[in-house]
Amino acid sequence: xxxxxxxxxxxxxxxxxxxxxxxxxxxxxxxxxxxxxxxxxxxxxxxxxxxxxxxxxxxxxxxxxxxxxxxxxxxxxxxxxxxxxxxxxxxxxxxxxxxxxxxxxxxxxxxxxxxxxxxxxxxxxxxxxxxxxxxxxxxxxxxxxxxxxxxxxxxxxxxxxxxxxxxxxxxxxxxxxxxxxxxxxxxxxxxxxxxxxxxxxxxxxxxxxxxxxxxxxxxxxxxxxxxxxxxxxxxxxxxxxxxxxxxxxxxxxxxxxxxxxxxxxxxxxxxxxxxxxxxxxxxxxxxxxxxxxxxxxxxxxxxxxxxxxxxxxxxxxxxxxxxxxxxxxxxxxxxxxxxxxxxxxxxxxxxxxxxxxxxxxxxxxxxxxxxxxxxxxxxxxxxxxxxxxxxxxxxxxxxxxxxxxxxxxxxxxxxxxxxxxxxxxxxxxxxxxxxxxxxxxxxxxxxxxxxxxxxxxxxxxxxxxxxxxxxxxxxxxxxxxxxxxxxxxxxxxxxxxxxxxxxxxxxxxxxxxxxxxxxxxxxxxxxxxxxxxxxxxxxxxxxxxxxxxxxxxxxxxxxxxxxxxxxxxxxxxxxxxxxx
Length: 580
Ligand code: OXD
Ligand code: MN
Prior knowledge:
single chain; alpha+beta
């Protein structure tokens, strides 16, 4: 279906075509037939390689340009009219200058190429919380990935035509030249322009660009939150369903937590996935926070996925999956570090594997529809979203941060989120080594000044007395030899059980200056093989270490100057004082 020439959607697309000069325009209908035809074309052109060895079926491998394997934060901009509105954590360019630069890059860039027009809906098609967009791209790889990741095609277009408003996303792979690569956001215009990269986080515009950077801006104006959070459903042995939303920086195990398999000792519990990366949070008429997952698929990190770490993911990615930058076995099965089966013959660049080198890129990815997940919760399709019992923040910290702590109240929880930090991972090509502050796991994704964002978070306390409790977790503590102190993965359910008990007013805890922490006896440790000293150290509070941490948080917050909410500073002062 191609919309009427009078519609704003058609007029915008035609304007893009006049600038980019494609050979032809393809309006995507989102059908399986169209997907199959695009895949066939990609296989013919070398953009996808069928990899159906062993148990794998309808799976493909894409090898990206070796310079284009992760998000590039240094080339990602938020272009607000007023620099202060973007905030010190975002790169900024005046909108006019950014448009001039990008017009130059986009001019004629699709000559000889097809232009795909991808109408998509972020969130269930009938949900009032969902938001739509149109991505125009010259990459068929992007079009097939967008079909797996979003509700894409005719029904989304119908909603767009009905509502008249949509996020406008222009994407071109250009020449994949890192010197001519920009990912630009114009929140005031609800538009995105991405040039020179085919990597998911830079090119599948529904995901980070729309559902986080632009949506966080829209959310502030409309009174909701767009967050880098998984949403997980936990069914207790009594059959009660509870929902948690949890923010972790990229590549810190969100997908694994969202698809957790209970350990044998907690066999009566069931865990299902609502979302693995993004949550849109709203207060309903009763003041209950509810979440929808705007996505319809997963773009997950492959290395480390096996039957023990994430059996659901291992199952789901054997069919209808697009792999990017994994290695290959000699019988054309995808291979990655931590797969635990088979051996690689080719590395992610397609070269014979050399001894000692990693065969899969550390940020190699799978794209797969959420419906393929054996633990997919039908509630992910629910128009009103799911009621959230607790919000969880977490980072990858080898030292200091305990296994779990509970915020005293909402304001303390907002500071916990604002003070989050994590060791860097391969999901971004330029986050450097060591620990970096990553407030609410939104450092790369918050589309406006963090000061205003924290003030927006804090404002929820005045809007509801039924807000979820807030927690901080850390699965990644290590001893001096680098060994992990907590087993993680399925065993993390024991921590979630304590969190849910607390929310129901049951679980016990001790009060400390940094929050409420469980004692050993407050956790369900039945059948858990863990060294008691290791357990003591991940449940301890190192007051000296925390004083230094609070000092470093103060230095970090200081860059936000006068715009920083005073409430956050008062909360910081309260904790520092309690630490002595
Ligand atoms: C992602 C990321 O791909 O956070 O989800 O980088
Ligand atoms: Mn993410």
